[in-house]
Design a protein that fits this description.
heterodimer, A: alpha+beta, 3 domains, four-stranded antiparallel sheet, B: Helicase, Ruva Protein, domain 3, 2 domains, 7 helices
């Protein structure tokens, strides 16, 4: 099967090269048969990548310990779920997984637009094939996952060998979220290839109008949703597995996943300027290019080891390949832009400084500043080594200090931006839209201060969260009120109706609300506290309102590990709340790795986070490390709301019946704006 | 019943047998000052990428400060007891481990660049955005005279209706 997989990968590479080179020839000659054959070569590439991936999984499931990658990342006792996830646990497999996910996107695009956009698709196909050629080069010639084990036998002749068992999967990766965190993150990284291919294709083809924007919007949103999910799942994994009580450590690889998310978010906002006003065409094209390049850079940072990271389980010296690919991509983008920049001529004009357009510009500025600040901070150790010979590390305290103010400004704009009108916003409109939310937000901030919250940024954050939530709820209320006046349905039913009539607008609001929840959770971090204590059975420790009593310990043998488990009873006001079972795990396999399983009692107010750290050297007593982390649950809940909002925004609008239904007055006689209370009714049916 | 007793006995035996597997590094309480300075220096064990105060040494046998982080926190307490200032303690670490010990770059020398950069991006970016917006505004003003003739021909009511309709149609 390893030979079969290896051959499938090689054939995929040949097909991708044909799709790329043949595609260029097809664009030049415009020969229909060539166009068709290159498209089919693109499909074949994807099919062969699927086959190779299936082969590697088959090798894992059949415990084929003659293949080096299987030996290094699996063992006989490894459960089926982790045999699936072992695919992306190391360098070779994760690169194949990159190709696999990209192939899903590519084949989806090729099938979706097989009979559409004939002028544009050959260009898009060439760009996609180009990216595939790069990754298949790595899969075939640099980091092949199908290498077999060999050792010198009698007379120095190399012969194949098979190990009795594998080394086992990295203990940190044996956690359910590892089954979904990397696929989500990779789906985000790979997904941004599609908007990139359309943007570069449209620029090369001088494809008229904003159609490429419309075509790629849903692909961008899908990639963005996966990226958001991947980031949050990664944060949750760090929280539940690493046992340090936090969820975001500004590790270089975490930062790398944030960078394309920031530019992708900026693009999803600024793209509206192009759709609605024909503005910022150059900016949007470059935002897409940058997002894609940052995706490649993210993969490069994860894989190359150029910066030290907790994600050290998939590193090798393939950095130069990525640098070369980024260089070529940048050169192609720059060349295409210089050649066809007149195609991106825009009609920029504004009526007022206070307008939706301005808010988008500032929104983009802040996302870009955050992105560059994170990027330069991440790479600063490398720069400092170049310039001074000393490597100066940049850790979490720096990133927190730099990014918290930027994040709060973005949060502020989240509340302000959507309520400003295009071109110009009147003073009355400002008062109407922001009067109440500002008052409610200020009152919330004041209350927080009165109740003893003294952390400056946390109070500001909570104030802004309430302000933004109020603006969003007010928008839903106004819209629902209009519909209710006509239909008489309940407010929630009207709000749902409203959302379904303009999914993009109200889905966007739901996403903003999700981000508000995330920020509420982040604000809680300023109040985290922890206690660590060696304990005997029957002893207790106090943290906040909780008493933790060690009730006992046991050992639980499982299929692939042995867990030493502490039985910790959590009491509040002397009343039992929950029994918690923090664990230390010793995994099977040649490497015998250790893992932590944190026990968490999570409420909307706070998380009681209990870690069994190990045994005290002197007393031989178990050490319990307890954290009290306020508001963390809001982060995960916010993530769910963001994903829900994105799905809503991806849905097609339901055709508005109410707006078009005849009212008591003839439609023609109805004065347009006056008869329509508030601003909602005529918005329906638009994006 | 016998079966469940046997299972409990097995668990207890395995529990006792597994105890030596856990490498013992204790839960020592450090001063608040050690935690504060410890959060400004990296754990120098070379494998965890965390600060000394927050080191949980993922994947290690002890989920708490590893022996290196623990040693660093102890050293902070010892130096503090001798009356050394925060800065002296930091400098002692820099002397021992080099500049990689900093969790955040110092605000002096080349490291100052790291602190100046984000502010510079923000200030420069804001200036660019203001410049761009004012250019777009000027462009709009300069285009007004050309369209004056047609504007005069349209009634204010019609203009108001058209403006509102346009606003609503372009509403996001």
């Amino acid at each position: 099967m390893d030979v079969f997989g290896s051959f499938a990968l090689l054939l995929a590479f040949v097909c991708a090269v044909y799709a790329f080179a043949g595609g260029i020839a097809a664009i030049i000659t415009r020969h229909p048969l060539l166009v068709k054959s290159t498209r089919q070569a693109g499909m074949a590439t994807c099919g062969l990548i699927f086959l190779a991936t299936f082969c590697l999984e088959y090798l894992f499931f059949t415990d084929n310990f003659s293949v080096a990658y299987v030996v290094e990342h699996s063992n006989r006792d490894l459960s089926s779920l982790y045999k699936v996830t072992a695919l992306w646990s190391g360098m070779e497999g994760s690169l194949l997984f990159w190709s696999f996910l990209l192939a899903i996107y590519v084949i989806s695009v090729l099938i979706t637009y097989r009979n559409k956009n004939g002028e544009l698709m050959p260009y898009v196909g060439v760009v996609m094939a180009g990216v595939q050629v790069f990754f298949l080069t790595l899969n075939n010639f640099v980091e092949s996952p199908f290498k077999v084990l060999a050792a010198p036998g009698a007379g120095g002749v190399m012969s194949f060998i098979t190990r009795a068992d594998g080394n086992g999967l990295n203990a940190l990766l044996q956690y359910p979220e590892m089954a979904i965190h990397p696929p989500n993150l990779y789906s985000g990284y790979t997904g941004f290839t599609i908007p990139f291919a359309f943007a570069l294709g449209a620029l090369l083809a001088r494809y008229p109008g904003e159609k490429w924007i419309h075509l790629t919007r849903k692909w961008t949103m899908i990639a963005w949703m996966f990226q958001s999910c991947g980031i949050l799942l990664g944060a949750h994994w760090a929280y539940a597995v690493l046992g340090w009580g936090g969820y975001w450590g500004w590790d270089p690889v975490e930062n790398a996943s944030l960078l394309p998310w920031l530019t992708g978010t900026a693009f999803l906002h600024s793209v509206m300027m192009q759709e609605k006003r024909g503005m910022m065409k150059v900016w949007n094209v470059w935002l897409v290019f940058t997002t894609f390049l940052l995706c490649i850079m993210g993969t490069f940072l994860t894989r190359s080891g150029v910066v030290s990271s907790v994600h050290a389980f998939a590193q090798s010296n393939i950095g130069s390949w990525f640098v070369a690919f980024m260089g070529i991509t940048l050169a192609v983008c720059l060349g295409a832009y210089l050649k066809n920049r007149d195609y991106l001529a825009t009609e920029n004009q504004l009526d007022s400084m206070i307008s939706r357009e301005s808010s988008f510009l500032f929104n983009n500025l802040l996302f870009l500043v955050a992105c560059i600040a994170v990027l330069s901070g991440t790479l600063f150790p490398v720069f400092s080594e170049w310039f001074t010979g000393n490597r100066i590390s940049v850790g979490a305290p720096y990133f927190n200090r730099v990014n918290i103010p930027i994040g709060l400004l973005i949060l502020f704009l989240t509340g302000v931006g959507p309520l400003l009108a295009w071109r110009k916003t009147s003073t009355e409109s400002l008062k109407k839209n922001f009067g109440w939310p500002l008052m409610i937000g200020a009152a919330a901030g004041g209350l927080a201060f009165v109740f003893g919250f003294r952390e400056f940024f946390s109070v500001i954050c909570l104030t802004l969260c309430v302000f933004v939530a109020a603006t969003i709820l007010l928008e839903f209320y106004r819209g629902a009120k209009v519909i209710r006046a006509r239909s008489g349905a309940s407010y929630p039913a009207c709000a749902i109706d409203l959302t379904m009539r303009n999914t993009r607008r109200y889905g966007g609001y739901i996403i903003h609300m999700g981000m508000v929840f995330v920020f509420i959770g982040l604000a809680g971090a300023a109040f985290n506290r922890d206690v660590q204590k060696s304990m005997q059975v029957g002893q207790s420790l106090q943290i906040g309102p909780y008493t933790l009593m060690l009730q006992g310990a046991d050992t639980k043998p499982e299929q692939n590990y042995t867990a030493q488990r502490m039985l910790v009873e959590a009491l509040r006001d002397n009343k039992p709340v929950m029994m918690l079972f923090p664990e230390k795990r010793r995994f099977a396999g040649n490497n015998q790795e250790n893992g932590t399983m944190v026990a968490i009692y999570s409420t909307w107010k706070e998380d009681l986070y209990v870690v069994f750290a190990g045994m005290d050297p002197e007393t031989r007593e178990p050490v319990i490390h307890a954290f009290l982390n306020p508001l963390v649950k809001w982060i995960w809940f916010g993530g769910v709301v963001v994903v829900f909002g994105t799905i809503v925004a991806l849905l097609p609008n339901r055709r508005s019946v109410l707006v078009l239904a005849p009212t008591q007055q003839p439609a023609a006689a109805q004065p347009l704006p006056h008869a329509v209370p508030s601003s909602v009714a005529l918005r329906e049916g638009h994006d | 019943m016998i079966k469940s007793h046997a299972r409990i006995a097995t668990c207890v035996l395995l529990g006792v047998a597994a105890l030596p597997l856990i490498v013992p590094i204790g839960a020592e309480q450090f001063s608040e000052r050690a935690k504060k300075i410890g959060s400004q220096v990296n754990c120098m064990c070379g494998s965890c990428s965390m600060t000394a105060a927050n080191c949980s040494h993922p994947g290690g046998e002890f989920s708490g400060p590893c022996s290196t982080a623990k040693g660093m926190l102890q050293e902070i307490d010892q130096r503090a007891a001798k009356g050394e200032t925060d800065d002296q303690i930091m400098q002692a670490f820099v002397k021992e481990f080099g500049s990689t010990v900093y969790a955040e770059p110092p605000k002096s020398g080349f490291s100052l660049v790291a602190w100046v950069m984000p502010t510079a991006y923000l200030v420069l970016g804001t200036l660019v955005v203001i410049f761009v917006i004012s250019r777009w505004l000027k462009k709009n003003v300069s285009e007004v005279p050309a369209s004056n003739a047609s504007v005069k021909a349209v009634s204010p009511e019609f203009l108001e209706r058209a403006r509102k309709l346009a606003e609503q149609e372009t509403e996001e």
